[in-house]
Structure formats: C-alpha cells, structure tokens
Design a protein that fits this description.
The chain has 156 residues and is of the alpha+beta class. It is built from 5 helices and 7 strands; from the N terminus they run βαααβββαβαββ. The chain is globular and about 40 Å long. It starts with a strand and ends with a strand.
Length: 156
C-alpha cells in the first residue's frame, strides 16, 4: 500500500470539497443499497447537506493515499458522524487510520450509529473495541434498524 497520510479536509479548496462530497455520496449509494431514502439522495442534495450540516458541525479529516483521496471521517466529539472509505482503498488500513484521528479528537469516548444491516461496519467497530449500546430504528425518513456503539478509554 502506498503511503497513507491523514490530514484535515482543505475546506478552502472547492475542488477537494467537491471530490470528497462526490465520493462520499457514491459510497453512501453503494453501501446502503437496501435503504430507499439513501438511494433517493442526489449529488446536489449531498453537496448541500455536507457543506451546510457536516462541515460546520464536525472536524473532518481525509485519508490521502499516494496523492488520492481515500476516505474521510467527520467527528463532532464524542460522535463519529460519518466514516467513509472509498472502495479501492478498503482493507488497507484507511479506516483504522481515520479512527485513530477520531480517538485523538475524543480520547476518552467515541459514539456512533450504523445500520444493523451494515455488517462490515459493525465488524470493523467491534474489532476496534466498540461495544453495542442499544438496538433501535433511525429516525424518519430513513426508518432503518440501527445500532448505537460506544468506545471508552480504559483509564476513564
């Protein structure tokens, strides 16, 4: 695997923001094929949501793999709001590197929601010490069975 660097999103670079939004949107469409609400999201809608909701609320870091954007993590401590690794970079340590940044931002506790059907994400988080807190259903319009996970530092 080429060198991996995790760094803050360059929010002042419209081309980088556009690429991140485009790839993040595509990953969502591919990953959540079973959820009609996610399938209905347009790139324009994703752009508006990301720039008006995610960017103002979260610290966003990107994984840069040999000069290419490989994924992102958006953290609003202690919550991981979004973690996406682009298909060609999966299973190469990108998600683990992004998670390490989240732990540096919120060193005592991290929390997140994912869909119950997202078995790959659930296995990843459990492998990294996250513990199931509760099963539920995401709010409308998704209304998808979800799971809340938490990770706590050992010395808390």
């Amino acid at each position: 695997m080429p060198p991996l660097v995790v760094r803050p999103l360059n929010a002042g670079d419209p081309a980088e923001v556009e690429e991140i939004v485009r790839r993040w949107h595509g990953t969502s469409i591919d990953s959540y094929w079973y959820n009609d609400e996610h399938q209905s999201h347009t790139l324009d809608g994703a752009r508006v949501f990301f720039t008006s909701q995610v960017m103002p609320a979260c610290a966003i870091h990107v994984a840069n793999v040999a000069g290419r954007l490989g994924g992102l993590i958006a953290v609003e401590p202690p919550w991981i709001r979004h973690l996406a690794v682009f298909a060609e970079f999966r299973r190469h340590g990108v998600a683990s590197a992004l998670l390490a940044v989240a732990r540096a931002q919120s060193p005592r506790e991290l929390r997140l929601f994912t869909f119950q059907r997202n078995e790959a994400a659930r296995a990843f988080y459990e492998h990294h010490g996250f513990v199931l807190q509760r099963l539920g259903v995401s709010p409308a319009p998704e209304s998808e069975p979800d799971v809340e996970y938490a990770w706590f530092a050992l010395d808390r």
